[in-house]
Amino acid sequence: MSHQLSRDFRVAILGATGAVGTELLALLEEREFPLAELRLLSSPRSVGKSLSFKGQTIAVEAVTADSFQGIDIVLASAGGGTSKQWADIAVAAGAVVIDNSSAFRMDPQVPLVVPEVNPEAARGHQGIIANPNCTTILMTVALWPLHQVSPIRRIVAATYQSASGAGARAMEELKVQSQAVLNGEEPKPEILPHPIAFNLFPHNSPLNKNGYCEEELKMVYETRKIFGDADIRISATCVRVPVLRAHSEAVNLEFDQPFELERARKLIAGAPGVELQEDWQANRFPMPMDVSGKDDVWVGRIRQDLSNANGLELWICGDQIRKGAALNAVQIAELLVQRQWL
Q1: Catalytic, out of 125, 147, 203, 247
Q2: Is the pTM of the predicted complex or chain greater than 0.90?
Q3: Is 134 annotated as catalytic?
Q4: Is 147 a catalytic residue?
């Protein structure tokens, strides 16, 4: 990011010890965010822990009503209930909250922002900006370059979602269960509802009366809000798979007219935050192991839908903890300071 800024900023991470919280910390260091102060906030059970930042050790503090005094930006990743409890208090103290939970995403007063897609939405914030769901972020970054040229009329997505989407403890559960199965033992689910090692199951978020789970409906409603298009028809099937930290998505698109394949490839290859990865001769396309720890969303296997002249198929992979969560939040913070929208 640009360093031609008039001042440094005071930042708090709420939920600092979780999988996304620790990634937020690493990204602030890696991207040289202009910091004057950094506070690490968590629940009382994490008090006594400390985390490393730029060679220094910073103690984790229990969040209180006084935690946000003097803070410019709060990067919140501690769950919807925690965000609802503290966001207004942080805003009242003068901070802008960039919230990674689902608490405010569909609030019409709260911008839902993916910087590569709708950066201008952040300008109108009233103290809170929502970070979209991980599957939505990865998909919208990949599809936006096409939607700008020829509006997408229908999206049918199937997702293959890593354990990291359920947090650090779910990632550890996948490791422990995998070892158990290899040892001939029965895997015991504690964090996830079913065994995840060598298994997969429909996403474990609550089911709606229409048969869709919350995760699937997030993709529908959030994508419409981010694209500013309430008429896109969207259907999703979300699946939890035994992968540690990167999500994959098989996406079918329908346009008003045929979309020339080479044009689609050029648009995706030239878009910010996206990398085109295709080796047709080797039948080699993006995989979770390719994108783990990477910033960009990788797209490949772009092909004509055989059943629809106006359709395209493509395959998307992205790191759930980085672009799917922490990186997008830090990019929003960078946007705010660069454009002086705090």
Answers
A1: 247
A2: yes
A3: yes
A4: no
